[in-house]
Amino acid sequence: MVLVDREAVLRRREVVRTVERRGAWVTLAIAVVGIAAALYALVAFHGAGMWPFAILLILAMIPLLLSTVMVFRLQSERQQWYDANDLQQVAMRMSLKGLELACDGAAYPVVLQWKAVRGFRQQKLLGQYVLDLDLARGVGATTAGVRGLDQASVRSVVKPNPLLRPTGLFLVKALDQPVHIIDEAMKHFSGGTAQIKR
Question: Would you say 102 and 171 are in contact if contact means Cβ atoms under 8 Å apart?
């Protein structure tokens, strides 16, 4: 059993929240500048045939505005969930049957048989090491022996999109066991089929 360091998780939540907000404000600033430039061009160069370009620029800025709204809405929903649910104390459990993972924001744990798991990948994200779940090829929410991958909070961190970099399931410094001990336990319980790749 691997436990969670509550203080480290709370600090990580604040870092993620701050980075998301900064990104949202920068995106909003770009959108406002783009729309202001388009409106200025419409007024300053009235009659010069600039209106199609100005309209296109305004239309190009609308997705930026919407993404800013989406970030703040998602943060609000996430905060409501944090307020309503206590932080899970156990990050993962391993047995000969498989791997059970607690995911921040999930209503119930993710349960995976060992044949569905290749292990974890340790990578650096926002200046800190995280463990990203590495599933066997073709494993999804409907695979036999898999439970919990269909939850929205799990989908957002486990293979979120082929075009996006995974965000990591566990912050390494928030776990009460070092990575090499988790790796040894994983190899033992899985019969050597799952491990942590660095």
Answer: no
From 7, 153, 18, 14, select the one nearest 77 (Cα to Cα): 153
**Lookup: tokens for 16:** 């993620």
Per-residue pLDDT of the chain (198 residues; tens, 9 = 90+): 788 888 877 887 888 888 889 999 999 999 999 999 999 988 888 777 788 888 899 999 999 999 999 989 888 887 887 787 777 788 899 999 999 988 877 788 889 999 999 999 898 877 788 888 888 888 888 888 889 888 877 877 776 555 445 556 788 888 989 999 999 999 999 999 999 998
Please state, in angstroms and rounded to a whole number, the distance separating the CA atoms of residues 110 and 56.
45
Question: Buried b vs exposed e over 71-98: b needs ≥16 C-beta within 10 Å?
Answer: beeeeeebeeeeeeeeebeebbbbeeeb
The tokens describing 43, both together, are 């007024």
Distance from C-alpha of 32 to C-alpha of 155, rounded to nearest angstrom: 32
Tokens linked to 56: 């296109």
What's the token pair of residue 32?
A: 């406002």
- Dist CA 80 CA 88 (whole Å): 16
Task: Answer whether 129's CB lies under 8 Å from 123's CB.
Answer: yes
